[in-house]
Amino acid sequence: MRAQFVLSEIGVGLRRNLTMTFAVIVSVALSLALFGGSLLMRDQVSTMKGYWYDKVNVSIFLCNKADAEQDPKCAKGAVTNEQKDQILGDLKKMPVVDKVAHESADEAYKHYKEQFGDSPLSSSLTPDQMQESYRIKLKDPEKYQVVATAFSGRDGVQSVQDQKGYLDNLFGLLNGMNWAAVAVMALMLVVALMLIVNTVRVSAFSRRRETGIMRLVGASSFYIQMPFIMEAAVAGLIGGGVACGMLLVGRYFMIDHGLELSEKINLINFIGWDAVLAKLPLVLAIGLLMPALAAFFALRKYLKV
Fold first, then answer.
1. Which residues contact 236 (CB under 8 A, 6 or more apart)?
2. Do 49 and 66 belong to one domain?
3. Residue 156 backbone zone (phi > 0: left; psi -120 to 50: alpha; other: beta)
4. How many domains does the chain have?
5. Are 215 and 305 spatial neighbours (Cβ–Cβ below 8 Å)?
6. Range of the domain at 278
7. Who's near 303: CB < 8 A, 6+ residues apart?
8. Is the pTM above the cut of 0.90?
9. How confident is the model at residue 245 (pLDDT cuts 50, 70, 90)?
């Protein structure tokens, strides 16, 4: 009988404040969708780091004849065979080096034509203008500075470049976008909490006569508060369910279908469905508990008769 009374009061409260209940559901849904999206963005960045950091190379570019005439770093002339052998030998001795591949000037020219054949500059380049290089795969991508320190400024070396630096700029941008989403999420959560508190107080005010009678006949505070807390929890749970739907629909249409980013941007290793599904219980739990706790603390003082 008591459970039936509580459930009936929940339905009455939700219908009586339908507009504010709808506003709570929408604000909770948006804030939790941003929350889930920020978690997924963090997972995506971590996945991309693991994928790309495993593929980055350190490149040691060697001086050619054109560099010897124009670049002060190559003032002693183009790299000699002895210098190349010495560089290769030193690289193989370094414990941080996993693999070393040599790219000749002809190979560099061929790769350039394959990638940038439509560029206006491609017709003016010749193989002798391209640089030989050693492409080094490190056991730990964070150890780039060890190679840079050992070979920068050495005779025959024009420059030492780390591809990880370019990736760090990309990941910094993605992390910045993620923090912006977190900031918007926090603002939406505050708005949602304020709406929940106001909705609960309006509902309690409209039923103040009933709650007063219940208090006089000996009903406990928890029993009086339960319908209001459950109203907020139900609205929050619906909002959490909508947020879960938004995350699923977003993953489906943005990556698998619709925009089909997984096919159009095949250089990115996108997170799978398992990562999305793993976040849904957390989103639902927050959607249920956050409004319930907000209602509980809002009512502790307000329902004292």
1. 24, 28, 196, 287, 288, 289, 290, 291, 292
2. no
3. left
4. 2
5. yes
6. 3-53+168-303
7. 204, 211, 215, 221, 224, 225
8. no
9. very high
